[in-house]
Amino acid sequence: MLPALDTATDLRETVRVAARDRRVAVNLTQAELALRSGVPLGTLKRFERLGEISLTSLLAIAEALDALEGFHALFPLPEARTLDEVESQAIRPKRARSRGRR
């Protein structure tokens, strides 16, 4: 079987339809989901129509629909092929502290 060759546009459409279908399946109106998620109704309507939404709003909707589990696998580390790669993946770089004004 060939791997899926989805584009970002294809995935956006898939997420849009899946979110709308889940909302309908759990018997919520757009207004109820907007209230439950804290996402403005207009933003939710635009998302369900066009698939356009910020990540913050998308996560709020997913949380309100009890559908956050899929987000954990979005950016997996590449599979390590050597012991050095395994060790380098285990040691996460620390972010430098920003220097605030004094």
Mean pLDDT: 87
Name the CATH class: Mainly Alpha
Range of strand content? under 5%
Uncertain spans? none
Over the alpha carbons, how many angstroms does the gyration radius reach? Answer: 19 Å
Keywords:
434 Repressor (Amino-terminal Domain); single chain; mainly alpha
Fold topology:
Elements: H1 8-25, H2 30-37, H3 41-50, H4 55-64, H5 83-90
Walkthrough of the structure:
By secondary structure, the protein is an all-alpha fold. Helices cover 53% and strands 0% of the residues. The chain contains five helices and no strands. It has helices at 8-25, 30-37, 41-50, 55-64, 83-90.
In short:
The protein is mainly alpha-helical and about 100 residues long. It is built from 5 helices and no strands. It has one domain: lambda repressor-like DNA-binding domains (434 Repressor (Amino-terminal Domain)), CATH 1.10.260.40.
